[in-house]
Amino acid sequence: MEVFTMERWSPYAVGIGIGVLSWIAFVLSNKPIGCSTAFVRSAGLLERFFRGGKVDKKPYYQQFKPQVDWEWMLVLGVLIGALASAFLAGQFRWVWVPPVWAAEIGTSPVARWLVALAGGFCVGFGARWAGGCTSGHGISGTLQLAVSSWIAAVGFFVGGIATAMILYHVIAA
Amino acid sequence: MLTNLHSKNGLQLLLGLLLGIAFGFLLQKGGVTYYDVIINQLLLKDFTVVKIMLTAMVTGMIGVHVLVGLGLAQLHPKPGSLGMTIPGALIFGVGFGLLGYCPGTAVAAVGHGAADALLGGIVGMLLGAAAFAAVYPKLKPTLAKGDFGDLTLPRLLNVNPWVVAIPVVIAVVGLLWWLEHAGL
Q1: A–B: how many Cβ contacts below 8 A?
Q2: Closest by Cα among B68, B50, B70 to B58
Q3: Does the structure show a pLDDT above 80 at A1?
């Protein structure tokens, strides 16, 4: 089973694999693969834990009920699958500052954490504003030839490339 | 359509979990759970992310449209509007550039021990989603601007889906061939 312990697979093999998963999801579950609604449901579950039932009165949580659903389980599975892959290849280790960031920007874990937190906030907020993320719009939506998803996919990369270029070539330069 | 299977809630949760495990495994094996790979894509130095996304898209596009033709699947295009899709995607993009992970890959990155994905990315995404839920009533008029619903490109052009899908597949295969040829 050497294939499972390899560190990397060809991006084309991985892409075909994800494409086939989308077929399975459509046929067996009648759903496109996506990830970002799991975050709003989890946020709602946490809010309900801390603030009680009034959370369910928020209109957005009536649309995306704070509960464990198919997509929430999918995201849990993503964690388990990546963990399994990393362990099989002997790649699991805690890293606070990714190597490219450390080399170009700095080795401070606090700086990396604060920028990641701000970035995560924008990702979570923007994904809900756009109604999907790089999975739901970027792969599942574009493969359905959805107009919303093609616009969103372009926007994700325009915003991402501009931000990364400014961060690495202007701020860190 | 396997409507009987679709209505079995417990089994669906299990299927979601199994599909997620396969998805996470593939993302990690593809290397796109690493900040370095994603940021180098956004800096246009490493095209692994684009190669995986485009290959997944064309594989999925062909298969799903065949399945729809056979009556085994139905499309679920996401609704959109100018006020929703454009600003939302750009805010997401800014976050994508700062965080260096997207929602799925951040979760998968935790699977190999990326502490920035866990304490920064996931915590931030939960806060961002909660903030969106809080401001959603005020944003509603903006979100409704320029609404085009769950339109697909074939419906927009009033053509058979394959009239769009086949040229897209050819263009993507050509682009991927060019990326390899250019050594990217």
Answers
A1: 546
A2: B50
A3: no
